[in-house]
Design brief:
Two copies of one chain form a homodimer. By secondary structure, the first copy, chain A, is α+β, with helices and mostly antiparallel strands. Chain A contains 13 helices and 25 strands. The longest helix of chain A has 27 residues.
Chain lengths: 465, 465
């Protein structure tokens, strides 16, 4: 595993070298999305949009600014976020009557309006989402994509007739998460956060945690069961079949640009990034191999291949720069392009092309007639093999411990009596963050690692980003 | 033509009734994009994205917040916008050292970074764009999509080696504008704004003006030639082929959610909206015609038709609500769906379906075997005929005048000696806004309407939104 210092140095460097962002913007924690990074983010968003359409969520776009009084209605929520919001106090030359804040998340912008939109049981389930920018005045050290102050954000909000239907929604959210995770070749843990660490205002929270090469975890998604908590504060009620007015049950599901951070960190080697084929901005880069004679013929054939790939829905790029092939290989490896296609004089004669996999370096000469089919198959194989490799890392990263001293690096799994006092004790004694328990449930036999009374389940802890 | 009062009442009402936005958000001038309206905006954005890809613009995403000192570097620019920006002065519980403003447009966020990105002539032309939200503290009366304080915005920014290449860019922008205009069935005038009314910091500005049913015009796009103005202020230089350092020439091209406002206003009748087929969120709505017997058979056939349309890339919606067909017709006409498909018992027997055009009410029974082909053809025809109708309105709305008194309603075209004094005089005496001169150039013979000296060209004026 990488040390935190090694990782930080590498990570902070590669995100700029590979062209994912530019950190020279003069506001701390607010970076510029450069074209290559933004394309990656957009392709990840496209997976999300497509899942939202599949599951009948409708897209909306709410205002960025929230009046202070409206924000303050759900008490726990304002406690959770109050210290980290940006305040707009003036417009033009005048002070505002009511201060406005930049949304840190949109519950308090949306829910007073949901109260107007939702009238009867026939309006339920109600499922909307938006992809937007949110703002959090982070006081911790910032890091590109992982901890920033302007966050590219996805948030789905739903309202339901009862707790059970909201629970169904959470299962659907986990299904969506699994589609997104597969596209990114990212395995993760679905953790039910302990009560003392749930989202501000939630009944319970599920954190989606990815294992990082330093042994820490990063939360890339959050799913929250609100029960009637927000509905009470914002008056979201509906008339049921019998004509009675009831509070709606609500859930939310959020993801952010941390998905990019996790992709960068989890899939890499000494050469640089390795992008999952499903979201790679460039899936195949074509590098012409110079030949003294037939130079123009090679160039022409490369262009033909480029257009064939493009018109078959493969994101291809033809690198015609005046550089040595070796330099080009180096560049595109660093930038994580999953597949390289080389074409030179010899391939011309054989009606062939050479394919080189970024994930394992495997090189193969293939007939150009079957190119599209083979490229698609290899891209699929790369995806499968990247996911498998990451799954093995995650598996190896979870360490069972019997007691709370002498802890290994990684995710710690300990037996737990399920008492809050013991959980907090474990948190204090290990100095780790408690991730919680498996959302799917897990039974433990034996003794609680903190109090030695009989254990009920397993508690997970790790250092987190 | 509609009076301003009639139009305002109708417009302010229809945008909510048709489900395009909700104006009940508690911050003035900041509305909620509801699913139907947001889908329309997204489809318009899709046209823009596709044109950007075609013309080699790369997408970026810059931070929303701009430090005050950086904003103030281009003097005319800050004069133009200074009075209408929102100021972030606090974060968490602390006042900020340097105040941040919400971008009213992104020149001052981007250009210091362009200065780092652009080094040599090989980096030029440099073409990027973003689709984002911008903020302007409007003091005039707000109106959904037309004058709002949080604006959904498109902005392309380019850098060039010289003035001529920047001019080429402006011609390309006009070509892109024409593709967008056609998709929206919106004819427009390309007006070179008078010098005293150009964009803050520009060398010259081209306004894209659409004729509204009240006789006023609305600017839906702006293209600006900056020459070296911003490059000087922000130090954007490049090394030319001879190794000399030169200032870059720059252009911008902007459009906004006003496109939606223009579509709503230009295409409508007493029944409600008429959406251009290319961007209509629903292109074909299927309404089953109830039959006592065969009810289930009709429903099933409607579902089959729905899936056939969908899988052929047509945005279809099947209305299975428990309502009378007449009520459904009324709803979808109001919401501007270009084509209605009715299917009942009789159509079942004939293997037919009835198509009703929203634009002209024409009704035709068509064989279901040829449905896809016919639907596509009719959608095309609707687009062509909507554009033609709007072109005729625009043409009829431009009125030649000889003198500056007793003006007709609409766009006024007057002969002009091209002197600023006369232009300003015309502005003062007519009480209209000067739109400028045709970007393509136009020669006039006769006498200037203001000073009676020989005219050189035509000057246009109108009341504007």
């Amino acid at each position: 595993m990488l040390s935190e210092d090694e990782f930080s140095e590498w990570y902070n460097d590669i995100v700029e070298k590979a062209g994912l962002c530019d950190k020279r913007y003069p506001v701390k924690g607010m970076n510029i999305w450069t074209p290559y990074g933004w394309k990656l983010m957009s392709l990840i968003d496209a997976v999300t949009h497509s899942e939202m359409a599949r599951t009948g969520h409708r897209e909306v776009c709410f205002p960025l600014l929230i009046p202070e009084d409206q924000f303050a209605k759900e008490e726990k929520h304002i406690k959770g976020f109050g210290g980290e919001v940006y305040w707009v106090t003036h417009a033009g030359l005048n002070p505002l009557d009511i201060r406005l804040l930049l949304r840190p998340t949109s519950e308090t912008a949306m829910y007073p309006i949901f109260a107007l939109w939702i009238r009867a049981h026939t309006d339920l389930p109600f499922k909307v989402y938006q992809i937007c920018n949110v703002f959090r005045y982070e006081t911790k050290q910032t890091r590109a994509f992982v901890r920033v102050r302007e966050i590219h954000f996805f948030e789905a909000h739903t309202c339901h007739a009862d707790f059970e239907d909201a629970e169904r929604q959470i299962r659907e959210d986990l299904e969506i998460m699994s589609v997104v995770g597969k596209s990114l070749c990212l395995p993760y843990m679905e953790m039910r956060r302990p009560d003392w660490d749930k989202f501000a205002g939630a009944h319970y929270s599920v954190g989606i945690d990815v294992f990082m090469p330093t042994g820490r975890t990063i939360q890339i998604g959050g799913i929250h069961q609100y029960r009637e908590n927000f509905a009470k504060a914002y008056g979201i009620t509906y008339e049921d079949e019998k004509g009675e007015h009831r509070l709606a049950h609500q859930t939310t599901y959020g993801m952010s640009e941390r998905l990019v951070g996790a992709v960068v960190a989890v899939h890499h080697d000494q050469k640089g990034l390795k992008f999952p084929p499903a979201v790679a901005p460039i899936q195949v880069v074509i590098v012409p191999i110079p030949a003294k004679e037939l130079q123009e013929k090679v160039a022409q054939e490369c262009r033909t291949v480029f257009h064939r790939l493009q018109s078959n829905g493969i994101r291809a790029h033809l690198d015609e720069r005046d550089l040595r092939p070796g330099n080009k290989f180096y560049d595109w490896e660093e930038k994580g392009v999953p597949l390289r296609l080389e074409l030179g004089k010899r391939d011309l004669a054989n009606n062939a092309a050479v394919l080189v996999r970024r994930d394992n370096g495997a090189k193969v000469s293939v007939p150009r007639d079957e190119l599209i089919m083979i490229v698609k198959r290899i891209l699929d194989e790369i995806g499968i093999s990247m996911l498998k490799a990451a799954e093995e890392q995650l598996k190896a990263g979870i360490r069972d411990v019997e007691a709370l001293d002498d802890l290994p690096v990684g995710v710690i799994r300990m037996r737990w009596c399920a008492e809050e006092a013991c959980g907090k004790d474990a948190e204090a004694r290990t100095g780790l963050n408690i991730l919680g328990t498996r959302y799917s449930g897990e039974q433990a036999e034996g003794k609680c690692a903190a109090c030695w009374k009989p254990a009920k389940t397993y508690l997970y802890a790790a250092r987190t980003y």
